[in-house]
Amino acid sequence: MTLGPIEMICIKFPDTFVKDEIASALRALVESQTIRIIDILFIKKDESGNVMIREVNELDEVDRSLFTPLIGDITELIAEEDVETIADSLNNHSFAALMLFEHTWATAFRDAVLNAKGQLLLNDRIPNSVIEEVMSTQSQVTV
């Protein structure tokens, strides 16, 4: 199986639950074949600093029903070291979702580049805050 670019993201939440709107947004991305979720897990740190890590199949029935349709076979490819690093960085009484996903939209483009003997020279993600800052600076310049 040929995979497109793989990315891992972690999102921290102030509460210990994920809202339905997040699952709906993920569902739209999966159904449109924009992404394929490879693995997802949830890290919760209680008020005493104790860490609980849960895979989708370990969630309660209501929460599991939000995510199970979005994920084929859980691959458990997220490294334990990454989970520990994120858990250590969380404040007490907080929650994070860690997701590994494939950019399926990019697979055909990648194949076309490879077929043309092209080579990827740069792949950088530029934070929105940087773009917004540059754009606001440009809009302040008068001609």
Terminal residue distance:
53 Å
Number of helices: 5
Major sheet summary line: 4 strands, antiparallel
Oligomer: single chain
Number of strands: 4
General description of the model:
- With 143 residues, the chain is an alpha+beta fold.
- It has a domain at 6-105.
- It is 36% helix and 22% strand.
- It is built from five helices and four strands, in the order E-H-E-E-H-H-E-H-H.
- The protein has helices at 20-31, 61-67, 80-89, 107-115, 128-140, and strands spanning 6-13, 36-45, 51-55, 94-102.
- A four-stranded antiparallel β-sheet has the order 1-4-2-3, with helices on one face.
- A hairpin with a 5-residue loop joins strand 2 (36-45) and strand 3 (51-55).
- The longest helix is centred in the C-terminal third of the chain and has 13 residues, at 128-140.
- The protein is globular, with a radius of gyration of 18 Å.
- The mean pLDDT is 83.
Quick description:
This protein has 143 residues and is of the alpha+beta class. It has helices at 20-31, 61-67, 80-89, 107-115, 128-140; strands spanning 6-13, 36-45, 51-55, 94-102.
SSE blueprint and pairings:
Blueprint lengths: L5 E8 L6 H12 L4 E10 L5 E5 L5 H7 L12 H10 L4 E9 L4 H9 L12 H13 L3
Antiparallel strand pairs: 1-4, 2-3, 2-4
Structure keywords:
143 residues; alpha+beta; four-stranded antiparallel beta sheet; 36% helix
